[in-house]
Description:
The chain is of the alpha/beta class. It contains 11 helices and 11 strands. The chain has a 9-stranded mixed beta sheet, sandwiched between helices. It starts with a strand and ends with a helix. One iron/sulfur cluster binds next to helix 3. One iron/sulfur cluster (SF4) binds next to helix 3.
Amino acid sequence: xxxxxxxxxxxxxxxTLSAALADSLEQEVTLLDCDVExxxxxLLLHPEWEDRYPVHTPVPVYQxxxxxxxxxxxxxxxxxxxxxxxxxxxxxxQLCHGCGACVYFCTTGSLSEDAREIGSVxxxxxxxxxxxxxLLNLGEVLAPTVIKAVxxxxxxxxxxxxxxxxxxxxxxxxxxxQVDFCLIVAEDSAFGLHDMQALMEVLRVMHVPFGVIVxxxxxxxxxxxxxxRQEGVKVLESVPFDRQIARLTGRGRLFTAEIPExxxxxxxxxSEVEGMVSGARAGSA
Length: 285
Ligand code: SF4
Ligand code: SF4
């Protein structure tokens, strides 16, 4: 089962809850930190890193000798990563999405492909938890490419938790692709509600079933819970705004490891999700 933990906005406690969920399980679990612009699940899980390798994307390399200046490469590039300047084709590497269209359509062989490093994947272990994190290099934009590389590391593991990037843009879509369930972490505030609704819209389009964990519950006016009740959205847990949890997290310690009651509660969340996913599978069989 692959469970994504996502939030419509940053700073909701998504990573804390991803790590807590992984920590609460008694069996082997793989945690994929797909928040590749700022992976920080490792700050709570403290894995021993075993491997690290670079992630590349293909980019075109231009050779002017045989170029006929036809401009075909420029017109097929939907990302505006190529420009014809005088009698030269300029490649803007940072804008290139590595689709290969320009190389394919160039009939003179003036464009060839090279690999450009844009980030890395790091693999390690923290007890029963296999930890994989992606890191996008500074100034790079192709987060989905690094996220896909991180996801390949799950290698068909039976329990996978994905710590998604925040928001609802392309990196989130890449992280949510092929997951069985999404736990939305939402704060009880006007922004929290708005961003949770945006994420729900994305999940509905992607046909990903979801439930909600309200984090720092008690700080707001209950609007997230009211909305979930009205819409029939399952609220799987409410984690209160609690000084002990905040203190532990701030010191890089998992609240589930220190407060047994919370380990049990998070384990129950996993079991409930498991029940919903198997129910859905049985229903569609
Ligand atoms: S590989 Fe694709 S995105 Fe990159 S320059 Fe060529 S056409 Fe544009
Ligand atoms: S498609 Fe090839 S030949 Fe035409 S302008 Fe681009 S590089 Fe030159």
